[in-house]
Write a structure and sequence with these properties.
eight-stranded mixed beta sheet, globular, alpha/beta, 16 helices
């Protein structure tokens, strides 16, 4: 047996023994995405009612629901603390969860400065390679800092995970691991892709009209990014680069069709740079085989000063609402946080600092509430409690299915006119009335 495997075997522990180490008032970090703790989570759930005031921390779980909260419906033992809300975080009752607002670029800094700390951290990693390294597959974003921040790191071994290419921060050596927990090796949970809607297609057409050869793209997950990718495949665009927070199927398809070469990037030329990845099963196989990935931490991918070192950065992000002065909300509805600050502002600023760069915030002009009422996403003012994800002082391009406008350098009256012009036609007259009441409409403004 090699020295690596001897060390590995000396650190093995059952999930039950790991859970027994957790005490009342502990903070247990599950990390995030599709590798969020499964083995410790299941074992710790069995101690519901036995412990008191145990904090479970998550950055956003893309996996089955938390076993600890399913086992503790009355909230006697566990409470949730999260840096980003997702569907499984929102399943925890509001009185038993709390949200910490922070940009993704700052997550590692919070851990490094001990503004956030953990007693235990547990999440899934790959088996060790011949040199003893376990890989943070597929998303190294915060993983290394998360593991090192804790007093004890439980590495949950998943044989379906594999080495990924990138910076040194994409992996951890077995010597830095507190204990190893083996389990049932669940497959990475694939995220289904829906065919983009006609509205998403219309938005994508406006966005693609702003792109050019050699652009370095930041794209996210969802039907609009997928629609953008589909249109790029059909276009004459070439030599595109990728420096992004998130990597998914759309980028994979662009790479496979030769649209992405990274030839004009200043940082990691020829490479696809990202910190977070999830998608279909085909996408995970792409990650395993692609020689041109550069997976690294989000303190790098989302650092505005780093982003700006690439020329021609086009940051594409989504909004939920935008008011007439240009403030954007991308995380809350009715005062309730439904997602998080994320990396939007990081790329809004970084892409505008980039030579020839553009920030584009996009979304459908309306949505339908649960009661069936259609509502405009372009609003006069935000309701009380609404989050401002990107402030008006940082705004650049805004896009709906009705067009794309540039707010940078525009005064408030000009912004109101431009935004009303890309609002849904059914709401434009009402928005003009609101603008008049707010002193943002002048006789010279157009009503067409």
């Amino acid at each position: 047996m090699s020295a690596v495997m001897e060390l590995y075997h000396s650190k093995r522990i059952t999930a039950e023994k790991a859970a027994a180490m957790v005490h009342s008032h502990s903070v247990v970090d599950y990390y995030a995405f599709s590798v969020s703790s499964r083995y410790l989570d299941a074992a710790l759930a069995k101690r519901a009612g036995e412990l008191e005031d145990v904090t479970i921390r998550s950055e956003i779980r893309v996996a089955p629901p938390f076993a600890v909260f399913m086992a503790d419906p009355e909230g006697k033992t566990f409470r949730l603390e999260t840096l980003f809300m997702g569907p499984f975080e929102l399943m925890v009752p509001p009185e038993r969860r709390s949200y910490t607002p922070a940009r993704v670029s700052e997550f590692e800094r919070l851990f490094a400065a001990r503004d956030i700390s953990s007693d235990f951290t547990a999440f899934m990693v790959s088996p060790p390679d011949d040199e003893g390294y376990l890989y943070f597959c597929p998303s190294p974003s915060l993983a290394l800092m998360d593991a090192r921040n804790a007093k004890c790191f439980f590495a949950e071994i998943n044989e379906n995970l594999f080495p990924i290419a990138g910076s040194e921060e994409r992996r951890i050596h077995i010597s830095e691991v507190g204990y190893v927990i083996e389990g049932d090796n669940p497959k990475l949970m694939p995220l289904p892709r829906a065919k983009p809607s006609p509205i998403a297609g219309a938005i994508a057409r406006h966005i693609v009209g702003e792109l050019f050869d050699g652009a370095c793209l930041q794209v996210g997950y969802g039907e609009i990014p997928d629609a953008v990718a589909e249109l790029i495949v059909q276009s004459d665009l070439k030599d595109l680069g990728i420096h992004t927070e998130f990597l998914g199927d759309g980028v994979m398809n662009l790479y496979k069709t030769g649209k992405i070469t990274g030839a004009r990037k200043q940082l990691q030329p020829g490479k696809i740079t990202s910190g977070i990845a999830f998608g279909t099963q085909e996408f995970y196989e792409f990650m395993r085989e692609c020689p041109d990935l550069y997976m690294t931490t989000s303190s790098y991918t989302n650092n505005s000063a780093v982003i700006a070192q690439n020329d021609n950065v086009i940051g594409i992000n989504a909004f939920l609402d935008i008011n007439l002065s240009g403030d954007v909300n991308a995380e809350s509805v009715g005062g309730n946080t439904l997602s998080g600050t994320g990396g939007q502002l990081d790329f809004v600023i970084g892409s505008q600092w980039s030579k020839n760069g553009k920030s584009i915030l996009c979304g459908p002009s309306t949505y339908v509430r649960k009661d069936g009422v259609r509502v405009s996403r372009v609003v006069g003012t935000f309701p009380a409690g609404t989050s401002v994800t990107t402030p008006r002082s940082c705004m650049h391009y805004v896009c709906t299915e009705y067009g794309i406008v540039n707010l940078r350098g525009r005064n408030l009256c000009e912004r109101a006119e431009l935004l009303i012009g890309i609002a849904h036609p059914d709401f434009r007259d009402g928005l003009i009335v609101e603008a008049e009441q707010m002193g943002l409409w002048r006789p010279r403004n157009r009503r067409g």
